[in-house]
Write a structure and sequence with these properties.
340 residues; alpha/beta; Rossmann fold; 13 strands; 41% helix; globular; binds nicotinamide-adenine-dinucleotide; binds uridine-diphosphate-N-acetylglucosamine; UDP-glucose 4-epimerase; NAD
Amino acid sequence: MTVLVTGGAGYIGSHTLVCLLDLGYEVVVYDNLVNSSVKALRRVEEITGKNLEFVEGDVTDSGALDDLFAKYSIDAVIHFAALKAVGESSQLPLQYYETNVYGSLCLLNAMKKAGVNHFVYSSSATVYGEVNPSPYVETMELGSPSSPYGASKVMVERILADAVRVNPKFRAISLRYFNPIGAHPSGLIGEDPLGVPNNLLPFITQVAVGVRGNLSVFGGDYPTADGTCVRDYLHVMDLAEGHVAAIDWLAEQSNFNGVEAFNLGTGTGVSVLEIIASFEAATCQKINFEIVERRAGDLPAFWANAEKADKVLNWQAKRSLSEMMEDAWRWQSKNPNGFS
Ligand code: NAD
Ligand code: UD1
């Protein structure tokens, strides 16, 4: 089976490539490298001992997508390519909608023309918005996320619901990720944010490696056990395996026409202070931090109900919090400047 992976050079995409190649899938990566490096792809080849096809291009370029589907015989698509900085999306809403929504439309149209009918979409826990209580369950109504980034994820989920209705052969899965952290245990690939990291774990590992000074913990007065925000952190390799389970499930269904959403998380909430303590225990590195003002837009606590992915896809997040920390640290300490 040949899988087209858009955004495959990025953080989650590169880890998913490892799983796909290890299991014998052929992969074609399509990425414009706006937030990634071709070195990640070479490292994936080093880890797996397998070759992959790479085409540099933009998901908003319909002509290039048509050429891509004409050149390769694609069976299924995993669509990671997107812009993902929540704060930046409020400054650059049109750019975010163009890449995340229009780019997805271009891809879906190119798939339709080429007769490719299996689609796995990178969605996010952010689609549950501010109204739903945790644990989040797939049967909940989609919320109204305040950021253009979050709104773009909701929009594409809605587009998929309409797209499957008018094409009886089309089937899709939206994977709603919680908070992926960690790295491949080789330390050869990992998360490599541009500039100052927005997310917690890359900030912590950059403090530990000496690239940044103190960690600012955003808010110590939330209504949680220790006052800091609670999230559902999962290992990026568990998340990567969830994509293979999704691709396999789509291929196994005989008459399925529709879109299914799955939460990919551990089902357990962990606070910011617990993350710091767990990182320190797993790596023997001291993290200097101070508790500062809350960050605008942060919810106090959310985590997944991940039973549907277990029941239907036979997928569970298996790796422990300390493995997440050890692997994140191995990647950062071996690559203090990421891929550059
Ligand atoms: P990433 O930025 O590391 O990867 C995204 C990839 O898409 C990059 O390689 C980038 O170069 C590429 N890309 C961006 N715009 C493109 C365009 N116009 N054309 C072609 N390629 C383009 O991000 P990631 O963390 O790996 O996230 C992958 C997907 O998962 C995204 O859709 C993101 O919104 C979603 N997601 C991520 C998280 C997270 O915590 N990382 C959580 C929920 C959902
Ligand atoms: C953020 C996004 C979310 C996205 C997710 C994964 C916001 C409001 N939400 O979620 O849409 O799906 O990333 O990409 O940006 N923290 C600190 N100090 C830091 C960084 C983070 O204390 O320097 C705290 C945050 O307040 C939060 C927790 O750590 O409580 C996790 O933060 P982060 O990694 O940014 O993820 P989310 O906020 O859950």
